[in-house]
Specification:
Layout: E1 26-28, E2 34-36, E3 45-47, E4 53-55, E5 62-73, E6 78-82, E7 86-90, E8 96-100, E9 109-111, E10 116-118, E11 121-131
Antiparallel strand pairs: 1-2, 3-4, 5-6, 5-11, 7-8, 9-10
Length: 132
Amino acid sequence: CTSVESMTSWVSAQSELPRCFLSSTAFQQTDGRFVRAAELQEGDALEGPGQSIAHVLAVKKYKPGPLDLIHIMTARSKFCATSNHRILVQGPEGNPAPAEAGSLLGCNHIWNGVDYLPILGVYKSREQAAVV
């Protein structure tokens, strides 16, 4: 996803489980406009890392409720996701490896689809939030 605030892409790991983004998370569409997760529709084309295109396969909106959120910071960006959101990090062999956001406290680098970005900080909060 590409954030309006940071203009940084991070790669979500493949999973059969839902990838829950906060409803306010912004994605850049292939036409350059931005759309919030709450406004996504099946079939939307989104700008991915390295000029790739990602197509929205399905959208399920969840009602607001108490959630464990993980806040991840790099030198160029910050990102907040549910603790079970799977992203790619640098694995032990140096290749991209899936990890749940809640387990990032022991990870040093996050994969943006092109390079590894050093993780400068990770913290957890419990908040009332809507996710998609």
